[in-house]
Amino acid sequence: EVQLVESGGGLVQPGGSLRLSCTASGFIFSSFAMTWVRQTPGKGLEWVSGIVSGGDSTTYADSVKGRFTCSRDNAKNTLYLQMNSLKPEDTAIYYCAKWGPDSVDYWGQGTQVTVSS
Question: How wide is the angle at C-alpha 105 spanned by C-alphas 104 and 108, nearest 5°?
Fold first, then answer.
């Protein structure tokens, strides 16, 4: 059974940092690209970042480029999202997701990030 479990969310002040983790199980983690997506009540789902299976290539939404860093440790079956210079508009539920052959096929349960003073 594929499982994706996010952690590391919380309340942080504007300008602060958080690191999200996503621990994967039930599949060969090192063989699949992964992605981070966030959800807000106002904007709906927004793609944040993606990383290839080997971890040597990443992509970012313009809204987070230069502030967020996506990485992975295939030996630990873990995906990360380092978030720096956080803004109130980064407040969202953050989900990690696994890419299948053509689309995202599994999602985690999400972790809440709130940026507020």
Answer: 90
What is the tens place of the pLDDT at every residue in 55-109?
999 999 999 999 999 999 999 999 999 999 999 999 999 999 999 989 999 999 9
Residue with tokens 């996503």: 22
Burial of 113 (0-12, 13-18, 19+ CB in 10 A): buried
Answer left, alpha or beta for residue 64, where phi above 0 means left and psi between -120 and 50 means alpha.
alpha
Give per-residue pLDDT as tens, 28-47: 999 999 999 999 978 889 99
If one counts every other C-beta atom within 10 angstroms of the C-beta of residue 9, the result is 18
